[in-house]
Amino acid sequence: MRVPPALLAGAAGLALVLSACTTDTPDDDAAEGAGLTPDEEWFDQEEFDTQLAQRDITPEGDPEQPWLQAIEPEWTDTGEFAVDDPGDATVCFSNASVSNPWRVTGFITMEQQVEALQDEGRIGEFRVSDAADDDNQQISDIQAFVDAGDCDAIIISPSTTATLTPAVETACESGVPVIVFDRGVNTDCMVTFIHPIGGYAYGADAAEFLVDELEPGSTVLALRILPGVDVLEHRWAAAQTIFDDSELEVLGFEFTGGDGAQIKDLVSQHLQRGSVDGIWMDAGDGAVAGLEAFEDAGQPYPVIAGEDELSFMRKWDEEDITAIAPVYSNFQWRTPVLAASMILAGEEVPSEWVLPQEPIREEELQDYLERNADMPSLHYAKFGGEDLPGFPEAWTDR
């Protein structure tokens, strides 16, 4: 059974009780790394090593089309699913939600890719259900697609891993090709599972940057969204591993719920206690709020790991901050519908389709800002839709 390495970056709609864990004055054990050992539930050394190694592997395919690239793919024959006329085929999509800017950006990109494929006669009708982050609703949505019996392919972005696994297996048992992307499930019955490298790679990119840019003995505050979401736990587990092997002092971590006001308040509280030299985040869409806390306190900006959301990237540029933008490749929303068109044509696809996941660094910042100059602040720079029919209006007029 293939255990998925990736869930959605945001996952902000999950109803979880938030908690926090900080150490105001680290004791001797903390200075030696206590609290920086990853929880066994969330740390898989083999998968950690695999993801960090995948960052250095050149993907197969055209680098100008990263949504079609694949890292070390194992190709699977899909001839049994070929249809006579793909232009008449119905593709059904069960979406977990569009509950945060990352998912909104991605879904717009998906819709534009669908339009292009329909114009080319490579798929027909595209049906969408949105579960609004409700597991039970998504289970019902998938069952409705199966019961209707007229979907030629089913794409699923699961709201959670374990709970949605039986529903995905039910879809597979219907005989229709199933494509899972973004968030995974605990089965390998689907024809292809599509995702960027994963949470360990994301967390490591951010932590390694802080280790490289900060002086030994510098302080780091970790800001996390929610507990119990595997991709976010993997990001933190990777950071714990890297920080534990460094000479940085990790003040602790705070759960923020992804709320900007909460982020600003928590950072302000830490600044009242002492200096904060670096900020590590498991998702950076609230990074600007954290930086505003430094402004209010009259403190110099920290070294920070944010994300490729434009509000952060523009702040990074305007204030000349030492920063990096880890990426959970938003262009992945193109890949499932392209995979569906390939499967309906009987073409091979990777059984596990691992997409590239490259952070944006200082030397690339201006390029990505120029490419996205007209996009709104909540847009994600690596959305990969510049060649699609609705560009740029579909994204600017959201």
Describe the structure.
It is a single chain. By secondary structure, the protein is of the alpha/beta class. Helices cover 37% and strands 14% of the residues. It has helices spanning 28-31, 45-54, 101-119, 135-148, 161-173, 199-213, 230-244, 260-273, 287-296, 310-319, 335-344, 362-371, 393-396; strands at residues 20-22, 75-76, 91-95, 126-130, 153-157, 178-181, 192-196, 219-224, 249-255, 278-281, 303-305, 323-324, 349-350, 352-355. The strands form three sheets. Strands 1-9-8-10-11-12 form a six-stranded mixed beta sheet, sandwiched between helices. Strands 4-3-5-6-7-14 form a six-stranded parallel beta sheet, sandwiched between helices. Helix 2 (45-54) crosses helix 6 (199-213), helix 3 (101-119) runs parallel beside helix 11 and helix 4 (135-148) runs parallel beside helix 5 (161-173). It is globular and about 65 Å long. Mean pLDDT is 90; it is low at 1-34.
Summarize the structure.
Helix content is 37%, strand content 14%.
Using brief descriptors, characterize the structure shown.
single chain, 398 residues, alpha/beta, six-stranded mixed sheet, six-stranded parallel sheet, 14 strands, globular, disordered N terminus
Query: How many extended strands?
Result: 14
Helix share, percent: 25-40%
Tell me, briefly, the overall form: globular
Order of strands, widest sheet: 1-9-8-10-11-12
- Which radius of gyration do the C-alpha atoms yield? 21 Å
**Main sheet characteristics:** 6 strands, mixed
Helix-strand makeup class: alpha/beta
- Uncertain regions spanning at least 5 consecutive residues: 1-34
Mean pLDDT: 90
Question: Could you state the order of secondary-structure elements as H and E?
Answer: EHHEEHEHEHEEHEHEHEHEHEHEEHH
Query: Beta-sheet strand percentage?
Result: 5-15%
Number of helices: 13
Distance between the termini: 39 Å
